[in-house]
Structures are given as C-alpha cells and as structure tokens.
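User: I want to check something. If I give you two sequences, will you return the structure for each one separately, not as a complex?

Assistant: Yes, each is folded on its own. Here is the first sequence with its structure:
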Amino acid sequence: MISYSQQTELSENYLLKKIKEFLLEDIPNGDKTSIGTVPRNAEIRAEIQAVEDLVFSGGLVINATFKNIAKIELFIAEGQKVKSGEVIGEITGNAIQILSRERVMLNLIQRMCGIATNVKSFTEIADKYDVWILDTRKTTPGLRKFEKYAVTCGGGKNHRFSLSDGILIKDNHIQSAGGVTPAIQMIKEEKFNLPIELEVDYFDQIKEALEIGVDGFLLDNMSPNKTIEAVKLIREFKSDEDIFIESSGGMTFEKFQNYLNTGINAISIGGLTHSVKSSDIRLEFKSL
C-alpha cells in the first residue's frame, strides 16, 4: 500500500522563520496606526473567538507568532470541533505588539481552520468505508506545510508533499515518453526506490501497466461503475499483491460519496486546499 510521509507537525524553527517573513511583508517599517494611537505601555487581554462552527488548526502558529511577546493560553486542541462563539484562546501582553501581529496570525489560522473544517466534512463520511481522503499539491505557494498540516488536523491524509517524494506518472508524462510501457520502464531504470503510481483514463492502460508492474493506480475521471470494473480488473490480476487504488477528478462533496463503495483505497481532492473558504475567526480586545 502506498503511503506518503504525513505533515502532522510544524517545527518551531520553521514557523518562526515563516512568520518573520510574513511580518516583514505586513509591517516593514512599523505599525504606524497602532504606534500613533495606543500608549506604548498599554497592556491588554485579547480573546481569539470563533465566529462560526469550525475544526481548529493553528495552535502552533499562535504560539510561534507571539513567542516571547505575550502570554498565550489555548483552550482548544488541534483537530477539535469549535462552536460559534467559543473562545479558542487568550493572548495577554503589550497592546501594540499584539495589534501588529494580529492580521498575520488570523490570516494563517483562518485558512488552516477552513481547510481542517472542510476536510472533516469528508472524512466523517469516508472513515465509515475505510477510504482515505487525500490532499494534492494544489496548495498556496509558500503555505504548503501549513495547508497539508491542516489536512491532517481534519482527519485527512497527505499525498506526496513534493515532486521529489513520489512517482505519479500522468498523461503528459505518458505522451512525452511515447506510451505507458516506456514511461514505466524508464522510471524503473532510474532506481529512485520510490513506489510507482500511474494515472489512467482507460482500461487498456491498466492492463498494460499490470503486466509491467506498478504499485498503484490513480483512476482519473472514471464513473463509479467504471471504477468498480477497474478495481475488479486490478484486484483479480494478482490477488496476493496489495495495489493502491485512488480515484480523482473534480471530486465535490456530493460526487465523492458515489465512490466510497467501489473498492478503492482513497479519494484525492484538490478542493480540500485550492478553493476552500477560510473560517471566520476574530481577535477581540478585553480589559485586563
């Protein structure tokens, strides 16, 4: 069974480096409004509030954004469901420091929570069928680790992180190589020591690949009935081999449910990350 490395954590060093980059973008020469309106020594307590129901992802981001700047207390764990109106955590410290970092923190956790919430809606159904919900590389440039981490918070699984982490031969590779057989043969000759997965549109491609040998198939835009036939063909070829099978292709919340009983191992969904709506979260200042 093909399984890729999972983004189940974000190292503090990585987070601090990225947040420094984001802060430089947002406050290159100081937060003029806060400096001009707030007393330098003003202390404040700020609540991170959920404005809608969501699945939480981003506690590590909050801690890193305000590290050595303010006191942080989180009330919600990663992957936990949050009701509208609930307080996710509190930040206590210098008002200007908190104001200057507010937007960077919110931008990140709103997107991460949006992804985790979206993924959870899929996994709560798919888990009953023992079908994995996989993300893709359709992520925001510079935010891939954040977004793939959020996927795992929602109960999903990560497909390959980068082009260096796995072999997935697609239609353009097949076209460039001159066919399925030469594409697989050439990749085997490279001896990358990585599992080989092949994206297929037709049964003839499956039969050809089974004869040469691959570790998995991505069934692209096949109907549920065709998927059942393809799974039967693959499983009956060598019943002692555990070949990974995933379905993909414009999988919406309504569409993916038609594939859960087809015998596949996973469904990969680009929409988990590339078109997700950020969760509504706000930072509300309170007096000490």
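And separately, the second sequence with its own structure:
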Amino acid sequence: MNTINNNLHRYILPSLSGKGRGAVLLRGMGLLLLTSLLFTSCGIYKSYERPADLQTDGLYGSAQTGSGEQSTGAMHWRQFFTDPTLQALIQQALTQNTSMRQVDLQIQEAQAYLKCSKLAYIPSLVFTPQGQLSSWDWSAPNKTYSLPITASWQIGSFGQLRNAKKSAEVAVEQTQTVRMAVQQSLVANVANLYYTLCMLDAELAVSEQTTANWKQSVELNKKLMEAGRSNKAAVAQSEANYLNVSASVLDLQEAITQAENALCTILGEAPHHIQRTSLESFQAPAVQTGLPISLLQNRPDVRQAELKLASAFYAVNTAKAAFYPSLTISGTLGFTNSAGSTVINPGKFIWNALGQLTQPLFANGRLRAQKKVAELQQEEAKLAFQQSLVAAGNEVNTALATLQKTTGKDELIKAQVKALGDAVQATEALYKDNVSRSVNYLNVLTAQTGLLSAQLGLISNQFATVQATIDLYQALGGGSIE
C-alpha cells in the first residue's frame, strides 16, 4: 500500500494540477490510473506469510523429547561429530567436493538475477549516436548527425516489478537451501563411510582372530587323529571352517578398499588409505528432538517446500497484477543538426517526453486462465508443504525408534558374546581332554560358529546405532550451514 501512495504523490497527483494540452493529456492518464488504483486490491503488494492452518502438532508421534524448540538437528556438525580425524575429512569434503562448488556458483547466479530485478525499478538509458551523408545529383553531401540519450521508466506496473523482485529473492533462498541440503548430505555420507570403515576394521580383526583360532583347531584335530582320539571327518570339517573364514577375510579386505575409494571420490582425490580410529570411539550427543516446528528451520526439504509455496504466492500476485494498467514514461535528450529535412549548423539541443498507459481490456480469457492456474499451483504447493512436514515427522519417529532398539540390544549382545566365549573355552577343553565322550567336534564347531556370529552381530549392532544416530540427526535437520 505504501508503494501505491508513493506513486500517487510523486507521479500522478502533480500531473492533475498542470496547464496546457500536455497537462490535459497527463491529467487524463492520471485520472485513469488513479481510478484503477482505487479498485485495485492491496493484495498484490502483500508479502508471503506462512499459512495459519499449517498442522505441526503430533508430527513426531510418541518420539518427541524436550519441550523447547532447540533440537539435535540444529547442532553444528562439529559439535555432533567430535572425532578429530572425521572432522578433518568432513571439512576436506566441504572444501573440495565439486557438488558444493557447483551449488555455490548457482547461488551467485541467483544473486545476479536478484540484482537485475532490483535494478528494474530505475530508468534504463540508451545512447544511440547516428551520422548520415546525403547528396543530390553528386552535389556536396549534407552531413547530419544525432547524439540522443533515450530514457525509459516503468513506474506504474501495479506490483509486477515488486513481485518479480520477491520471486528472485525466493530463488536466492532456494539455492541457499540446496546448498544446505548438499552440505548435510556430504557430512552424512562422509560420516557413514568413515564408520563403515571402522565397522569393517572391527569385523576384519574378529575374522583374523577367528582364523588364527580355527587354524589351531585344525592342528589340534590332526594331532588327536594321530593319537586315535579323532577322525578324518572332524579334521576335514575343521579345515573347511578355517578356509571359509579365511575367504571372508579377503572379502572384508576388498570391502575396505571399495569403501576407501568411495570416500576418496567424495573428497575429490585419487584412491588412498584413509586414516581412522575405531567404531567404539563414536560418542553420540544426548538426543533432543525439540518441537516439530523446528523442522521448518532445519530441514532443507521442508524449507524448499515452503519456498516453493512462497514462489507460487508471488506468481498469483503477478497474475493478478496483469489485470491492471501499466504506466511507462520515456524521453529523449540529445544534440543534433537534423531538423526533419533541414540541416542546421551548428547543431541544437533537442528533447521530447512521452507517457504511455497500457490497460488490458480483452485478452480472450488468457489473463483469467493464467490467474486460475497460478492459484491452483499455489494450492498444490501448500499441500506439498504439509506433506513434507508429515514425511519429516515420520522419519524422526523411525530413526529414534531404531536408535532406541539398537541401544537396548547392545548390552544383551555383549552378554551373549561373553556367554558364548565361555562356552567355546569349556567345550574345547572337554573335547581336547576327552573327559566326556558326549562332547565331539560338532559341539566345538557349534560353539565356535555361535561365538563368531555373536561377535559380528555386536559389531553390526554398534554400527546400526551409529547409523540411526546419523539418520536422526539428518531427520531433524542436519545442522547449520557454514
């Protein structure tokens, strides 16, 4: 509304008090423009506001923790991932990754378009010098020239320029949100690959230790067979188990190489060994989901959905503005020696001014159709925005449930590993000393296999806890942009 008042006092009202034919023309244009303004809704000058009927209550289900809006997702990634080695890798990825560099260039492009939209408010100037030689029947040629500067100023577009600028501002925010999404994805991917390597290291260590133990079991069975206390079947079975776990060691080594190469690709480097600590070094911060409203600030996809709604809002305003008149003022100031067919030397200054008012009267329903389409697209964007919140809330609930389950299983699996370790020692001792005829190599094999499975299960559960924590961090927003 302030824009309308400013235009009235600066451009229209002064023209109504002028005299002469030019003033009469300007007065008529001013009256038409003023009449249109009186019937124009101020809605086309409104800024986007978040819908009042947006549903955010209960998005987390029963997973909400904490009563404030601050959540784990708002933490900076350095506060979340405290391993110095991992921090260095993440920083390296954010600096060197080509996706981050590309989105930075996209932000610069959007900012350039925004600058153009802002400059649309000021007049455009064009300098078009001209020169001409003309002769009649080979007489001495006449030399004419013109040095004009032409200005054009669109001052009465009824919100079109403003809504174009607002749309450009939204586009800048959208590219910034894309950058936030790329950063959060990079941080999560580097962390997942880093702890995947830590998990594979732990599995490799267990497998190598099992290989050494089962190799001793093969040697023991051979000695027992020589002493007549075992048989060929037990020796062959022990050898098969040893060879199987030896093959798994090679598989793990290959998986480590693949994971390191994948991480090097993210870092933008040639394949090389990745320095790392251990899976046990991961220390997750206390989880605080905060209120669901925090998703609006932290989640890139939710923010992107809202920005699309804002863009659709300004598109509706632009469609409405097309129904109202547009006022353009243009003029020329220059120096010339050409006055029609007369050549004047020396040259003289020349100027002219023109005001043009354009009011759509009949466009075969095109303007109404464009407005209807824009309004429908705005409704679609609103539904997509609400759905993005629902999906985000479900992701938070799922990640937190997984984290609680894996955390609860950790102590149980540790107790299982200890019990199976005791069982292996006792069974091997009975089998070796031949105290009980009821204990054969099948009992030893069952105990050893159960222990290996439990040890690998513990490592897998620890890694699942790490992944669930990272997933929850992402579901809550994934931290702030640097």
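Because they were folded independently, the notes below concern the second chain alone. The first strand starts at residue 124 and ends at 127. The CA atoms of residues 417 and 455 lie 6 Å apart.
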